[in-house]
Design goal:
Strand content: 35-45%
Distance between the termini: 111 Å
Keywords: Calcium, Cell adhesion, Cell membrane, Glycoprotein, Membrane, Repeat, Signal, Transmembrane, Transmembrane helix
Number of strands: 41
CATH superfamily of one domain: Cadherins
Pfam families: Cadherin (PF00028), Cadherin_2 (PF08266), Cadherin_C_2 (PF16492)
InterPro entries: Cadherin-like_dom (IPR002126), Cadherin-like_sf (IPR015919), Cadherin_C (IPR032455), Cadherin_CS (IPR020894), Cadherin_N (IPR013164), Protocadherin/Cadherin-CA (IPR050174)
CATH topology of one domain: Immunoglobulin-like
Membrane topology: Single-pass type I membrane protein
GO molecular function, one term: calcium ion binding
Strand order of the largest sheet: 1-2-8-7-4
CATH class of one domain: Mainly Beta
Length: 632
Amino acid sequence: CYWSVRNNVSWYAHGDLTYCIQEELKHGSVIGNIAKDLGLELGRLASRKARVDMEGSEKQYVGINMRNGDLFVAARIDREEHCGEKPNCVLKFDLLLENPLELHRLSLQVQDINDNEPIFPKDIIKLEIRESTEKGAKYRINAAHDADIGQNTVQSYILQQNPNFVLNIQTSPGRKYGELVLDKKLDREEQHELKIILTAVDGGSPRRSGTVVIHVTVLDANDNAPVFTEAVYTARLPENSPLKTAVITVSAADADDGINGEVTYEFSRLSDQSQTLFSLDSKTGEIIVTGNIDYEERSKYEVFIEAKDGYGLSSEAKVIIDISDVNDNSPQILYPAPEGSSFMTELVPKAAHGGSLVSKVIAVDADSGQNAWLSYHIVKATDPGLFTIGLHSGEIRTQRDISESDSMKQNLIVAVKDNGQPSLSATCAMYLLISDNLAEVPELKDISYDEKNSKLTSYLIIALVSVSTFFLTFIIIILGVRFCRRRKPRLLFDGAVAIPGAYLPPNYADVDGTGTLRSAYNYDAYLTTGSRTSDFKFVSSYNDNTLPADQTLKKSPTEFADMFGDSDASPEVGINSVTCLKVLARRYLFLCSGAKCSWRSDLFRPGGAETRICNRKCCQRSEPGAGRIIKS
């Protein structure tokens, strides 16, 4: 019995697959071929790391043959162990494939076989019956328990031949039991006890059976059976309850006096699993916990309690124990795989836009209700503003467009929390590569998140920022000092300032006409900083070749050009015995005498490095008396 239901639920779930098998199959028995049934590539099962996990269990019950795609039995599958008395037993599995990620739901319907025989609660059933008891009296015999279901459970009872009793088979919902009927009155003087064998037979093939001995002791009269206060008792018990936790107390009363009215309690019908979890006080009727109660294994138990008086009259009550779930299971992350088991990396295209789906964290919780509600959170990221995760879906998406400045290697630490109190969580690492193909990645293993490397990188960044800040501060200070030095003369001579007259030694003979001054001259120089004009005043002298004493030169660059002519037509004008002035960028004033100077109007342009009135030869003479330097 095999069928598959194809669904397109989401990007990671492609379909459901159901197989039917019998319980107790041998190890290696083939269940089906998942490669064929799901249309998977046979050659890629191993490379895609195909695996099958059972929901709520870490035990590997089934496996995959990577060579042929067969799904086979890897461990003993007992229907009674997994499903108890449920009529339908379906085991849920997850088939997970990687690269790309695929998740398929597998259902394994386990069919019952007749592998259990009927078992009575006790090896001997003791009955004490007064000899005065009338014919037709009925005595209930506790039903035999068969762990199988359907036709394989108890179908009939057979009573050994005897002179006093016959057996009636009664049916109640879901089970059959026997009633011992007194067909002939007992005679204590004739026979004070009887031992009769009762056999329970199931309907399987071949049939299985179990027996019990009914020991009848003949006594005097007892005409009242115990009566429970309730026909059905209900109790609620949290899972993981400590040992000896009280579950419920049942009570029955007997109208008889003395020993006939003394009531004792015992389990009349109890499964093998329930026997290890609960015990009953025979005198008080209190049920307590004696084993580990796990909601995920079983959420409800039904037990039957018999109240019996001193001479064997009895009645039965049913107790239903509902197990409540507590948050005792942490979320189990199915994808990505736990660190160390395998290395999985997701590729993020460089052209991915904001809101693009990158990957998905898949997790389950074995608890139920709100304890199994999961939420997903990014607790650490290489770039906190680049990715976001769906709170309830676990889908990892980009928050913005991928840019060239984003690091190729992106690590995300994701926490999965449930909604229980207190909340339990699990974490996983998601490794992402911003690349269009693996050829761009030098070594994938370098992407593993290293907390120490991250701290070292932080320290290096802090050191680099500190050094850079110090260097920039130093440069700014140097530039500021130089700027202040350049500004200082401008501040000192802002406006027309009279520079003291320069002194030149007197009476130098003009022997060869090279132009030394024959007598002393005083020169008044006026400078207006930040202006295109300069004001020079030469005092009067007896020399005819010098400027008149009352003539003052206040010329702009264009006026100088007009005075000496166009620079292109007449680049030089010879002037003998005239002092040359040179103002350098450092604001030194050179007074040179007796040299031939070259006057160029284009040298007076504002903002230049220097302004020349005379040529270099004039200002570089080295003989004594050639000039005097006055620092402005």
